[in-house]
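Researcher: Structure for this, please.
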Amino acid sequence: MNLDLSVIIVNYKEPGFLRQCLKGIRSANPRLTYEIIVIDNASNDGSVDMVREHFPDVQLLAQTVNRGFAVGVNLGLRASSGRYVLILNPDMAIFAGSLESLVAYLDAHSQVGMVAPKLLNPDGSVQMSCLLFPKLTTPILRRTPIGQLPFARRQLRAYLMVDWDHRAERPVEWVLGSCMLVRRSAVDHVGPMDERFFMYFEDVDWCRRFWEKHWRVVYLPSVQLVHYHQRMSAENPGLKGVFQKLTRIHIQSGFKYFQKYWRIPNPQLVA
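Model: Predicted structure, token format:
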């Protein structure tokens, strides 16, 4: 059966958030035909047992090795059957009507391959979830104390689109992979996520490839979700953050991205 929507959730050691996310989708009771697919990346923390016990209707793909976010998403894509696919982090709060609104938007805009809602922090402030394509220095500035210097702050504000009010629907260069609704036919055209990225930059790369194939990526602030994400570098600023494993992965992924697109100009956005 061709469903309206496949929800793909890649989980790694977030049993509490995952449970609340699944309960939230169930409580929202979307007026769509849909399926939920959870890929657990070898959490070994009770997440798999929790899903099996409390959400037997969810399709669970339990991995024995953590091969990264992109691999998890692609496993979900191959197992899914929806016209549209929602890539969703487990630390996301779903509101009633939000999934229907995202699906309706793609139904009404055939040239849009990907749409993303406005993400809010738990305190109600706007999360910077739509961004410009990064420069070579961006991951270093974001993950090291250099980012505190005045010139770096200006560059990062532009990259994060901080000075845009986030109230208007608009095409954007890329959106966070924590919540993106993609059109199945666009995925078939563009291809799955690039599995060379273990974590970070797989969403930048995917959005870039959507634009290269002339599929629009749109930020839709009329739909809002709460994202309980907090950047690890924000928890450990300064020199301490430089030695974090996630910081190293972020910078390594950045170099893979720039190696892939070396001397290739950014794609042009179509209004």
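Researcher: Any notable elements?
Model: The first strand starts at residue 3 and ends at 11. Residues 75 and 112 are 24 Å apart (CA to CA).
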